Amino acid sequence: MNQKGVVSEVFPRFCNVILDTESDKSDPKKLLCTYRRAQILVRDPEWLERSPVAPGDIVQVQVLGSKDGVIEELLPRRNAIQRKAPGKEGKVLHTIATNIDFVVVVTSLHDPDFSPGLVDRFLIAAQKAQIIPLIVINKTDLKKTAEDRPWKLYEDLGFQCFPISTHKNEGIGRLEAVLSGKTAVFCGHSGVGKTSLLRTLFGEVFGKIGDVNKVTRKGKHTTTVSTLLQAKNRTRFIDTPGIKEFGLFKIDPKELIEFFPEIHELQLKREPFQGLPRYDSYMRIKAALEDEGR
Ligand SMILES: Nc1nc2c(ncn2[C@@H]2O[C@H](COP(=O)(O)OP(=O)(O)OP(=O)(O)O)[C@@H](O)[C@H]2O)c(=O)[nH]1
Ligand SMILES: [Mg+2]
Asked: Which end of the chain is more exposed for a tag (fewer CB within 10 A), N or C?
C-alpha cells in the first residue's frame, strides 16, 4: 500500500514519516522508513545533498506494517532552506528544512550574546529561497540596560523582530499568532533556547534542554536531530540542532550587496558606507563567497 506523508526526522539510514492520515493529530504515529537511494530524485547535478530527504519533505511511502515503510518517491519541494554542509569537501549541501512558510532565526540577547553574523547569513539564505525570515531574540530577561537592543538595526531594515523571554513567558503570544496554521523552522546557534521556546509554543515537553557553558556562555549542542512537531490548527514547527556556521552557496559575490540595501544605497550615491553596522559582516561574507568561487 502506498501513502503520502511528511518527513519528520532524518537519520543516516532511515527517516520518520508522519502519514497524511495522521496529519491532524498532535501525537501522530510515525513510520520508520528506509531509503531507496536510487529512487530519490537528483535535484542538482552540481551539488550533492548530504541526506536523501529533509524534514518537511513530502514523500510517497510503501507502508510495510504498522511501524515500517520504504520511501518510494520524493515529491517536488515548494522551497528549501539550505547551507553548505559543514566539514565536507566539495559541493555538498545540507538541506535544513523544506516546504516551509517561515525561517525563524532564533538568537538570544545574552548567553550566548546576540550574533549578527549568523543572522545576516540566515536572512540572505531565506530571502534567496523566497521564504519569510522572522528574527526571535530570546532571553530578554537578561537585558542589561534599556539601550540593550542589538536587534534594533534589523527592525529598522524592516525585518519582523520578536524580543521574547521564554522563561518569563513574555512576547510569545505575538509570535504564536503569526505562526498559527503555518510551517516554521527554528534555527540558530546552540543554547539560544530553540527547544525551550518550542516546548512553550507546542505546549508539551519534548526533546532535551541543555545549560550553556558557564565560561564560554555557549550552548552544548543538546538537540542532535531535527524534529517536525505537529501542533494545533495544522501548525508545524521544526526544531533543529544549533549550528556553528552557515556557509552560503550559489550567490554571486557581486549580487551580495542587494541583500544589504542600506550599504547599496550609499554605494549608489557614492557616499562612504564603511561605518555602517553591517559593513564588516558584508565584507566577511563577500570574502567567503569569493573564496568559494576560486
Ligand atoms: N535566561 C533565560 N534562559 C533561557 C531562556 N530560554 C531558554 N533558556 C535557557 O537556555 C539554555 C539553552 O536552552 P535550549 O532550549 O536547550 O537551547 P537550544 O537553542 O535548543 O540549544 P541546542 O539544542 O544546543 O541548539 C537552557 O539552560 C535554558 O533553560 C530565557 O528566556 N531566559
Ligand atoms: Mg535544542
From this structure: C
